[in-house]
Design goal:
Helices cover 83% and strands 0% of the residues. The protein is mainly alpha-helical.
Length: 218
Amino acid sequence: MAWGGARSQSFATFLILCPTSFFLGILFSLFPYDYPLLWTASTPTEANFLSAENHLRFLHASPPIIARILHIVIAVGLLGFFIKLYRPSESNMLFDGASLVLYMCGFVVYMANIVKGLRVVSSGKYDVELVEGELGVGNRGTNPGDGNPLGRNDSLKVLSASNTILALVLVGVLVLQAGQWYAERKQIQETEQMEKENVIAGKGSAATQRTGGGKKKL
């Protein structure tokens, strides 16, 4: 069994589930803005793009304490994984290891797409921001407007798609944690059933021995 026994495992699971559910709640609050951009058959209107853009700018302009709380919640989830994966059992390696991979994939999506996208939307300079990012990774000689940079509407759609990807990743974390709980529950039930069968078999063997002993005395 991993460090701390069943109680620490339950507490660590709590530390994982709470941040994951918290992030899903945030993404759900963004869904009314993402839905018209990605999930409707009709073409998004300018009002849809403007509504999403204004909301994202409002989020990016939030006080620094909001971002700090968000990052603390991310760290709490990582702490839960570290507790569960310290001296891990086979179940921890399988379910918690896969959950940690998904959690880190979500973190990469958040840092690479969502944070950068919020900065671009807040500045309003979509082409310039994209080119600066390309120069930062070594594509020299690129000027604003060269190639096919993402415009305003495409950038907002990419942000909405990133929210969807992040939501799917976080749902995967919850599914894996639920799968671990179910597997451990079934294992406990099977162990208890085997113990009961062993007890019954032991009583039957003892009764047989007593019966055999009585016949010999006769």
